[in-house]
Amino acid sequence: QVQFVESGGGLVQPGGSLRLSCVASGFTFNTYYMSWYRQGPGKERELVAHINPDGGSTNYTVSVKGRFTISRDNAKNTVYLQMNGLKPEDTAVYYCNAGRGRWYLDPWGQGTLVTVAS
């Protein structure tokens, strides 16, 4: 059974950093692209970043480029999102999933809440 367990969120001041983790199971992790998504208050879920199966290629939405870094550890079935220079507009629930935005695996995890505020 597919499962995603996200962690690492919290309250951080503007300019601060957080590192999110997502442990995945129920599919062959090292053969899938992995992505981070976020859903802010009153907004639709958006794709934030994705990484290819061997970790050698990444892609970011414009609003986080240069501030966020996606990485993965295939031995641990884990994908990470290092977030630096956080802004209030980064406040959202962050989710991971397989693929790179055109499809996803069900069910989604519970997500991890990131709140950027002073």
Tell me briefly what this model is:
With 118 residues, the chain is an all-beta fold. Helix content is 0%, strand content 47%.
Structure description:
It contains no helices and ten strands. The protein has strands spanning 3-7, 10-12, 18-25, 34-39, 46-51, 58-60, 68-73, 78-83, 92-98, 112-116. The strands form two sheets. A six-stranded mixed sheet has the order 2-10-9-4-5-6, with no helix packed on it. Strands 1-3-8-7 form a four-stranded antiparallel sheet, with no helix packed on it. The mean pLDDT is 97.
List the helices and strands in order. EEEEEEEEEE
| Count of runs of 4 or more consecutive helical residues | 0
Uncertain runs are none
**How large a portion of the residues is in β-strands, by DSSP E?**
over 45%
Shape: globular
Secondary-structure-derived class: mainly beta
Order of strands in the sheet with most strands: 2-10-9-4-5-6
Quaternary structure classification: single chain
The helicity comes to under 10%
The number of distinct β-strands equals 10
- Biggest pleated sheet: 6 strands, mixed
Radius of gyration: 13 Å
Distance between the termini: 40 Å
Average predicted confidence as pLDDT: 97
